[in-house]
Design goal:
UDP-galactopyranose mutase; 3 domains; FAD/NAD(P)-binding domain; alpha/beta; Amino_oxidase; Polyamine Oxidase, Chain A, domain 2; single chain; five-stranded parallel sheet; UDP-galactopyranose mutase activity; flavin adenine dinucleotide binding; binds flavin-adenine dinucleotide
Length: 491
């Protein structure tokens, strides 16, 4: 059904651009509006002074064959590198192999600390913590307090910005059952009979040689070549609906030239679903707006520091478990691709998990560069005084937060959209408030495009709920898809 106005797509990240490309494949006209000055969304590659930075390091890995095909339709094979994954854990001056291996772990911990870990494990087995409903209780009951505090507590608290005894335990059960550090720790430190398979940690992944943004820059060219438009620096501020017809009819966009209204037969939205609700005109009912206002996000900040190549390391990234440092992970962009760096230097991306508008977020760039430089030097990963340049990249809403009420809130919004504006199609990561990787964000867009082009009737919300996934082999009880903890809701 349409009045010849085509589809408006909000956002030129992986979901928005995939939707555009797929609709054009079906001969459907599209206009993409992107608020930022670059395409790619969280999967962009930022360029400053010829250095290229990835937001968090994007591995191209999928079990969805049509996504894999899409990637290779957009970029020729010679633009992909096949990279080995390597990452280690930094803790109190030592680098631990990941997955841990016994010799390396023992050497790093030292005999004394290793014995303490074993003792603490024994105590936890004899007298487990009473409250195991939270992450801290659950993990320390299984591994002992010392191993828990070295290998789980600090990093988890950095990522989610909250004490580990406030994160629900089912996430730990989920994550730890499936793999991860626990298996690695057990393999390294506990008797052989308790060992579990760790093969899932050994992997290779594809990576576009100029970073993930290259995929989306090229995709934009293809969309434009096929007659679509992609406008950057253009905000969608309002979505107009006709309540009598139960349809969205137009969007208001704002760019440097001012404000205008663009008619639409369909709207595909990859903007945060909370913002989509707030953009509705006439307004959504109070309970839907309240659900939108209750959704939360975790934000992300990278300080990229240019250092001489001698301080490069083979890892793609290093997890920093050291409680004395605020930095959560350190990317080595040169290990992702030699095309991201230049001039006999590499670039290290110190990643800080933050909340938008917290003190760190508001700190001026120059101070952040000085702070990150000092942390890097203190960790002993570079020689003092060797940092030559620094750049700050802020990425708001990097992670949709799963709190106790988020599922209910999403259900309220989703139900209302389906009833009142069924021609508005939420897709992607923040677009659906789901912890989707790029492949699943793209798949939701492909399905939405088919729903528009030939009424395929896909339920886009089933993506990444029941599917087998590379880092999660069993579906979560909460149907949250990826493994993220459920947090306490704001009171
Ligand atoms: C640290 C980190 C590491 C990651 N690593 C991986 C990885 O290794 N592999 C992987 O596959 N995935 C990874 N991901 C996930 C991946 O980044 C996302 O799945 C993907 O970018 C989501 O695509 P999207 O199009 O749904 O949303 P986004 O990428 O968020 O794009 C949405 C776009 O909409 C625009 N927008 C928002 N509001 C408006 C508005 N009002 N008007 C116009 N435009 C608007 C935004 O500016 C943005 O460009 C990672 C994510 C993070 C945070």
């Amino acid at each position: 059904m349409g009045d010849g106005n085509g589809t408006v797509i909000i956002g030129a990240g992986p979901a928005g651009l995939t939707a555009a490309y797929e609709l054009l494949r079906h001969g459907e006209p599209v206009r993409v509006y992107e608020a930022d000055d670059v395409v790619g969304g969280i999967s962009r590659t930022v360029e400053r002074d010829g250095w290229r930075f990835d937001i968090g390091g994007h591995r191209f890995f999928t079990k969805v064959s049509r996504v894999e095909d899409f990637w290779h339709e957009i970029l020729p094979d010679e633009d992909f590198l096949l990279r080995p994954r390597m990452s280690r854990i930094y803790y109190r001056g030592a680098l631990y192999d990941y997955p841990l291996n016994a010799g390396n772990a023992l050497r790093n911990l030292g005999l004394r600390e290793a014995l303490r870990c074993v003792g603490s494990y024994g105590r936890a087995r004899l007298r487990p913590p009473k409250d195991q409903s939270h992450f801290e209780g659950w993990v320390s009951a299984r591994f002992g307090w010392r191993l828990y505090s070295i290998f789980f507590k600090t990093y988890t608290e950095k990522v989610w910005g909250m004490p580990a005894d406030q994160l629900q335990a089912d996430w730990a059960a989920q994550r730890i059952k499936n793999l991860s550090l626990s298996t690695a720790v057990l393999n390294a430190l506990l008797p052989r009979r308790n060992r579990k398979d760790v093969t899932s940690l050994i992997e290779e992944f594809q990576y576009p040689k100029h970073g993930p943004g290259m995929m989306w820059e090229r995709c934009t060219e293809e969309v434009e070549k096929r007659g679509g438009t992609v406008r950057t620096n253009t905000w969608v501020t309002e979505v107009h609906r006709n309540p009598a017809r139960r349809r969205a009819t137009a969007v208001t966009v704002v760019d440097a030239g001012g404000e205008r209204t663009e008619p639409a037969d369909h709207v595909i939205s990859s903007m945060p679903i909370s913002a989509l609700v707030r953009a509705m005109r006439p307004e959504a009912p109070p309970e839907v707006r309240a659900a939108a206002d209750d959704l939360r996000y975790r934000d992300f900040l990278t300080v990229a520091l240019v250092v001489p190549e001698e301080f490069s390391f083979p890892d793609n990234w290093i997890y920093v478990h050291d409680p004395a440092a605020k930095v959560g992970r350190i990317q080595n962009f040169g290990s992702w691709s030699p095309y991201l760096v230049k001039d006999g230097r590499t670039c290290l991306g110190l990643e800080y998990f933050v909340f938008e508008d917290d003190e760190m977020w508001r700190t001026p760039d120059a101070d952040l560069v000085a702070f990150a430089t000092a942390e890097l030097e203190r960790l002993g990963l570079v020689r003092p005084g060797c940092v030559e340049a620094g750049y700050v990249v802020r990425m708001p809403k990097a992670y949709p937060v799963y709190d106790e009420r988020y599922q209910h809130n999403v259900d309220v919004i989703r139900g209302w959209l389906a009833r009142e504006v069924p021609n508005v199609h939420p897709v992607g990561r923040n677009g659906m408030h789901r912890y989707n990787n790029a492949d699943h964000s793209m798949l939701t867009a492909m399905l939405a495009a088919e729903n528009i082009a030939h009424g395929a009737g896909h339920d886009v919300w089933t993506v990444n709920v029941e599917q087998d996934y590379h880092e999660q082999r069993t579906p979560s009880r909460h149907g949250t898809g990826r493994d993220a903890p459920v947090m306490p809701a704001r009171r």
